Structure of Phosphate-specific transport system accessory protein PhoU:
Amino acid sequence: MIGEHSSKQYDHELETIRSKVLLMGGIVETQFLDAMACFRIGNPERADRVIAEDDVVNQLEVSLDDACSHLIVKRQPTANDLRTVMATIKVITDLERIGDEAAKIARTAKSLHGRGTPGLNHFEMVRTISTATSDMLHDALDAFARLDGKVALQLIARDAVIDHEFRSIMRNLITFMMEDPRTISSALDTLWVAKAIERIGDHAKNIAEYVIYVVEGKDIRHTKPSAPVLPDQGAN
Amino acid sequence: MIGEHSSKQYDHELETIRSKVLLMGGIVETQFLDAMACFRIGNPERADRVIAEDDVVNQLEVSLDDACSHLIVKRQPTANDLRTVMATIKVITDLERIGDEAAKIARTAKSLHGRGTPGLNHFEMVRTISTATSDMLHDALDAFARLDGKVALQLIARDAVIDHEFRSIMRNLITFMMEDPRTISSALDTLWVAKAIERIGDHAKNIAEYVIYVVEGKDIRHTKPSAPVLPDQGAN
């Protein structure tokens, strides 16, 4: 994988960017888990921390983009290294958006628990999609850390499961709202949270696609999932 | 602005990428306008065309990312040129997402008109946000085409107006749903359309921020809007 560039300093610079991306990934993953905990049990202080953490994530986005630009100028990366830098530039954007969605969930959790939620166990509605998405995000970040194209490829199919679960939540919430219009406001809050989770699933899928781009040198975005992307590839 | 690189061939390559981005921008802008026309008056064939156009946009995304990679390897851009390439890599992602949102609006328009919409003039609910957003998108693409940092800076504030309008639509729709639960389903469709429009506004804002990054060499994402970014700059 490595080997086409010789300088140790260059390796070190690439590795610094990589660890910073992983740090950013770790932060947004925790943000998401914390935001869901707030949605489940309240805890406005924790919600505030999730929201405040967004600044850290935003600053990481800006500084990582800058580091990638500098690396391009200084090292003129080619082949694998350039793909890694290109993928990093894209992954950063997805991570930043995940942070945004987590902050949105935290804000909704705060407002929902602040005014009470009659007649609707809102967390139960999103428990399944929340677990599926946090698992997917974790695995996507792991695939990025280990540059594991096989895991990344398997991940992509899991986004469809999350989208399906989202539609099912929406149907359930519509039923609730129709049966008891007093639940409309909190049902909508729950729907926004479900939507934010579904978006996080989209971003995790994007990250998986960029991992495949780095590993395989192939851009599989917008291709049909049945296309044989990793033919005859052995275990990682 | 230009002048730091000398090769005519290089200029030509940069210009080709630029025109292709503008082509992509023109397509998604039309997609959005067409999708809104479908939402207003129906027309399932036109909605299908908007949805089909998404493939063209997706392919442009892939081929433009590829062209940017090639340019980096071949030309080793620095300073202005590198900023242009970096901004292009990011803008492409935003344009592709705008295409996605337009396709979502077209799908909702189809399903809503397919089953009729009792008691809710759904287009009137989103008329204001739709006009504000399509104007903003048009101006953002124009700012990108002319690399006009001044216009781009003014654009950024307009996103807050769109967000505000979105929240007002949501409150109105909640009132409708509470007064007549039979409208819940179509009100939710309208809400998703409003949300898609609000997202398009976010992407237009991102594009404006990248224009400022190219022109000013400054990354103003996540800074407070009051920060003086273009001090004492004369007319474009």
Notes: The helical segments of chain A are 8-41, 44-75, 79-115, 122-146, 149-179, 184-216. The two ends of chain A are 12 Å apart (CA to CA).
